[in-house]
Amino acid sequence: MQLGQLGTIDTVIFGAYIIGVIVFGIWIANREKTSTASDYFLASRSLPWWAVGGSLIASNISAEQIIGMNGSGFELGLAIAAYELMAAITLILVAKFFLPVFLKKEIYTMPQFLEDRYNGTVRTIMSVFWIALFVFVNIATVIYLGALAIETLLGVDLIYGIIGLVLYSASFSIFGGLKAVVWTDVVQVVVLMLGGTIAAYGILSVVGDGSVFTGIANLYQALPGHFEMLFEPGDTYLDVANAHELSTGVTPYGEPTDLEPGAEVKSSFQLLPGMALLLGGMWITNSYYWGNNQYIIQRALAAKDLPEAQRGVAFAAFMKLFIPFFAVLPGIAAWYLLREQDPANLPITKADQAFPWVLANYVGVGFTGLTFAALVAAIGSSVSSMVNSTSTIFTMDIYNKFINPGATEGRQVKVGQISAAAALLIGAAVAPALANAGQVFQVIQEYTGFISPGVLTVFIFGFFYRRGTAQAALVVVLASVPLSWAFQQLMPDLPFLDRMAFIFLISALLMVVISQFTGRTKAEAAAEGGFNAEEKRQMGEKVIKDVKLRNGLSVAVIGIGLATGVRLLLQPVPGVPLSMSIIFIILSLVVIALIYTDKTADDYKAIDLHPSLFRTRMGFNIAALAIILLLTFIYTWLA
C-alpha cells in the first residue's frame, strides 16, 4: 500500500471509530452536567486511580510521541526513548513530592499555587506564559502532526486534516470539560496501546521473518548505532528531509534549494547529549512536564484523594516503560527497510512520516484503520486536554482575577467554553507554519526549554526553600526566556539540554541571592496582622527540619548543574570551550554553598511541610522500587 491510499475496509473502520468516539464524548458531556467550575475544570475531583493513570498516558502519548518519537527513532535511534524511560522515575518523584503539596492547597491551576506561595504578579505572568506556550507550541504542533498523519495515510490535504481535528476536538471537549476529556481518554489509551503494539508487531515480524524477537535482534545487529542510548560528541545522523532536498534540488515548496552538501549530516549529540539524558537537563524537561505542566497535572488534581492520585501516577509510570516498543522501534525498523534506497526516491521525505508509512504497509487490513483511528482520536484527545487546561488557566487566573472577580459558577463555565474554542482556533491557525520543521518532537523540547528551567526553579524553591521571596521568583520567571535566547545565540554549539541546565543554575543563584535582600519574615507578617489564629497555631507545629530541605535542594543542583559540568569536562563538546565546564562546576558549588550558609529568616509565605505529608503507602513504594530496578536493567543491558 502506498502512502495516501488507505484501503476501503480500513477507511470504513477509521470513520466508524472516530464517529463512535465523538458520540461517546458527546454522551458523556451531556450525562455529566458541568454546572460548576469544579465539574468543568476538575471533573468534580472524583477520578479513580485507573482513570487518572489512563488519562495521563492518553494525554501524553499523542502525535508528538507516536509520530514524533518514531520520526526521531527513524533518524536517531533508541536514545530518544530516554524521554519515556526517565519519565517513569520522574512520575514517581512527582507523586511523592509534588502532588502532596498541590492537593493540600486544593488548587485548580499551577499559577494559583504561585500566588499562594509568592504573589499575584508571579501568578499572572506565568498564566500569560503558559497560555501562549500551550496555544502557539503545544496545540499547534499536535494539530500539525495529526494533520500530517492524515495527509500521509488518507491523501487529504494538510489544511483539511487540521479542520477535521479541530472539529473532532471541539465536538465534546468544549462543552463537556475535563470529565468528557478524561473518560474518552480511558477508551483511547486502551485502543491506542493495542494499535501501537499491533503496528510494532507487524513491522518487526517482517524484519524478523515472522518473529518479533528475531526482528529486534536483527535490528540490533544491523543498526548498532540506532541502539546507542548515550551518544558521543562525534555521533551524527542523516537528516532525511535535507537529504531529499539536496537530491532533488528543490524545497518542499518547489523552490530551488539553498542547502549546501553536508547539510544532511547533523549531530546526534546536539539533540541528545550523552549522559545529559540521565543526569542534567533531562531532569528539567521531565520534572517540568510531569510536575508543573497544567494539562498533565490537572488529571492528578482531579483525583478523589492523594493516595488515589499517587496510585494513578504510579500506574502511568509503568505504562511509560512499555511505550518505546511502539513509539520508537517501528521508526528504527522503517530505517532498516529503507536505508539502502536513494533519498530522492524514498516514500518518506521527512522523519515524521515514518510511523504513518509503517501503518500503511505493515499492519493488516482492518487493524490499519483501527490503529490509525485510535492515533488520530488520541491526537484529538491531547488537543482537547491542552485546550481544556488553557481555558482553565484563562478562566481561573485571568478572568476571575482581573475581568470579573465575582463571576458565578455558570459564568465561569461559559467563559471556559469560549476561551477553549479560541485557543483551539488560534492553535489551528498556527499549525501550518510547522510544515518544514523537521523532527517536530525536538522542536517542542527546544522551545519548551526556554521557559522550563525558570519555572522548575520557582516551583522547587517554592516547595523547599523557605526563604524564597516573590521578588526573587518574579526575576527568575522574567529572566528565563531572554537568558535562554541569549545563550542559544552566544553558544549555539551547547546542546539545548545543557543550556537548560545552565539556565537552571543561574535561576537558582538569582533565587537565593535576591531572596536574601527582599525577605519579609513570618514574625513581621504576623505583627502586621498577616495571619489568622489558625495559621499562627500551625506555625508552632512540627515541620520538616530545615537541613533536610537544604539537602534536597543541593541534590537537585548536583544532579542537574554539577553533573553537567563534570560531563562537559570529561566529554568535551565540539565548539564549546572547556571553560564552560569549569563555569558549570564553580556555579554549582556557589549555589550549594549559598543554600547551606543562608541565615536569613523564613519568608512569610513559606510552606510548612509536615513529615506526614510525604508518607506513601506500601503499594506505591513497591511500585517505585520496581520501576527503578527495571530502568537500571534496561540501561545496563543496552550499555
UniProtKB/TrEMBL annotation:
Recorded GO MF terms: D-glucose:sodium symporter activity
Keyword ATP-binding: no
Domain of life the protein comes from: Bacteria
Gene Ontology, cellular component aspect: plasma membrane
PANTHER family, per the entry: SODIUM_GLUCOSE COTRANSPORTER 4, SOLUTE CARRIER FAMILY 5
Family: Belongs to the sodium:solute symporter (SSF) (TC 2.A.21) family.
UniProt name for this protein: Sodium/glucose cotransporter
